[in-house]
Amino acid sequence: MIDDKQIIDFLQRKGALEILVAIGKGPKRHTDLREKLFMSSSTVHDRLTTGMQLGLWEQSLQKQSSGTSAKVYELTDLGLEIWDAAKKEDLRRYHMARRDAVRQVRNAENAVLREVSPQDAEWWDEIDSEIEIEEFEMQKRLDEYFTEEEEEKD
């Protein structure tokens, strides 16, 4: 049980529980979290800093395949307690569904913008390139999802 209101307040902030759930799957770098969770660098930085101050995760150095070391974040015992509760509620699946819904909204908005814009408009290519990036990101997420599903079965 968590009897610290400051921790509960923090976990209600945008992205805090999502970061905790992602770190629960294994040590993560700031960059990994930003890319995977589609959050701004400043939001991830703020949540990581506050989460460390509250004792939910800690920072350590992890050797990379390139031979360099990178800062990674790992859950503490307190963080693991919350992660266990999140797993019971299948929170990770809901986070993924929300990200996919946001992606679909962005694609629909871009489709509207393309429909109402003249094809020779200077911004037309910018709209198309955003949609291509979204499709690439969707495929990347699907690949990650199926890889994670297979790992969980093992």
What's this entry about, in short?
With 154 residues, this protein is mainly α.
Q: What would you say this structure looks like, in words?
A:
By secondary structure, this protein is mainly alpha-helical. The protein is built from 7 helices and 2 strands, in the order ααααββααα. It has helices at 5-11, 16-24, 30-37, 41-53, 77-88, 91-116, 124-153, and strands at 57-63, 69-75. Strands 1-2 form a two-stranded antiparallel ribbon. A hairpin with a 5-residue loop joins β1 and β2. α2 packs across α5. It is globular and about 55 Å long. The relative contact order is 0.10.
How many domain regions? 2
How many β-strand runs? Answer: 2
**What is the level-2 CATH architecture name of the largest domain?**
Orthogonal Bundle
Tell me the CATH topology of the largest domain.
Answer: Arc Repressor Mutant, subunit A
Whole-number radius of gyration?
A: 18 Å
Kindly, what is the distance between the CA atoms of the first and last residues, rounded to a whole number of angstroms? 30 Å
* Helix and strand pattern: HHHHEEHHH
Helix content: 55-70%
Strand residue content: 5-15%
